[in-house]
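Worked problem 6 (solution included).
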Amino acid sequence: MGTVYRKTATKPLPEGAELFERKGVRFARWRDAKGKNRTARVTVGNDGSDRIVIEARTFTAKYRTRAGVVEVATGCRNEDAARRVLGELERRAELVKAGVLSTAEDAIADHQPTPLEAHFAAYRAHQQAKGVVPRRVLDVQSQLRRMTRDCSFVRLVDLDAERLERWLADQQREGMGAGTRNEYRGAFVGFCNWCLKTKRLTVNPFTQVPKADVKADRRRHRRAMTEAELVRLLTVARWRPLADYGRDTQRKQRDADAATTGRKGSWTYATLTLDTLDACLTTARERLTKQPELVARLEVLGRERELIYKTLVLTGLRLNELRSLSVGQLDLDGPLPRLTLDAAAEKNREGNSLPIRRDLADDLGQWLELKRQTASGAATRSGDRPEVLRFARPLANSLPTDAPLFDVPRGMIRILDRDLQAAGIAKRDERGRTLDVHALRHTFGTLLSKGGVAPRTAQAAMRHSTINLTMNAYTDPKLLDVQGALESLPALPLDADRISMKTRLQATGTDAKSTSQFAPAFAPTADKSAQTQSIGDKTHTCKGKPAAALPLDVTSSPDKRNNPPTTAVDGSREWAMRDSNPRHPRCKHGALTN
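Solution. The predicted structure is:
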């Protein structure tokens, strides 16, 4: 039989406590930090000093199980409520003892009264210990809290698939995309899977919640860029930071009539285009003649942005992967230049060593030298429009290995949009597909396919888990040379009056005497049978002469198949007919003929 009681603990006497005695029991009276009068029983500690006895506010249940005596906090301040909790605990202990309830199910029942927020905190600690990206941890926690609030989930027992399905349907009606809805669903599925591993749930209630069809409700369709567009983009990225200082001012369109109406109009800068790029550069250098340091910084900034775009296109790196690269992760001096990605920065958490093109390696080497010179103040400007900065002296020191390769800004998407506008490249094409930073990775995959790279090699370069992702999601079919592929097919002329049948067969490689243009030289032909043959039986004669030289098919036997698939089998059938009928019409002497 179990019992409930309040746990007690002893503490030293508070400062200024007054001791008094009541019915033979000593007590202490004092004021706490909030100014309230407190009273507690006084006892003698092990060291002989007086100590106050503090009693817990809630009851603890103590009962016996198969494993021994256990104590469980009931969380109840009322003794009757605590005894009801004790009765439930003892009932569960009896069910486990009788084998009706397993030990795992009994342990799961202990987590049911715990609020979901406490489970979320434990799940967050698990993800952090696992090494999940901090931004991802915050997103998952935010998604879990939103669904918990909207679906009125309080404890684990409240988790219900039907409520979640209704919530997802409501979000769809409000305009939430299929991909976003799948992310919310995945957050709860992942949380419940963790609850299964930690013995908090017996089943995952959200496994059967269907996923939304992303293909049917795709909100962002990216496209790849053409080579001509890439050249224009790199040019604008290189010089736009400086050219922006040379743009002319103009009155805003809505205030164009301000001069006639007498209202004070507002002004803005003219839009930068490829046609006005050179003129803006010249004007900018004239305006910043007295600020050479600013001009140098703007040129370095343009070089960095240009190289960021080029690196993304020629390596297929994701933006965060590029942002994580440091100087020590580059190997530019070896026979095969490459860069190494840390597992923590990569999406699949594997860590990879990626080869890079030699020209890109040279550009990165020049960029590192430029960073060294810029850090020491040794870089100066040379000429009206230099391709690279001139270095006043070589540096003996090198950059630290943990120094970031690029200073990738957080607003890279807005910077790309301005570069696209200045380059005259449409953000959205006629098919509704858009360009963003991740579209440069799509461009990388499309250029691999366009260059004739084998699909499996392209998959390794893209670091994809499936070939379907490489060939479908990251390959833009509009840029592939389908017309060139069709031109490689054989010609099939239809004019029979001017071209003889023999000429047509030879042209297409179907004539038996002509060598096929597409079949390999080692392919079997009709006049070179692969049939195994042997010498015929010497007892057979034709016109009184032995037929020793007659070939026989060693696999010949009476045909036991309904539909002989090859001529070799048909031949064996012919030989069998001759053996069984001595007066075969094709052997007028009653013997086998060759």
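Discussion: Residues 428-483 form one domain.
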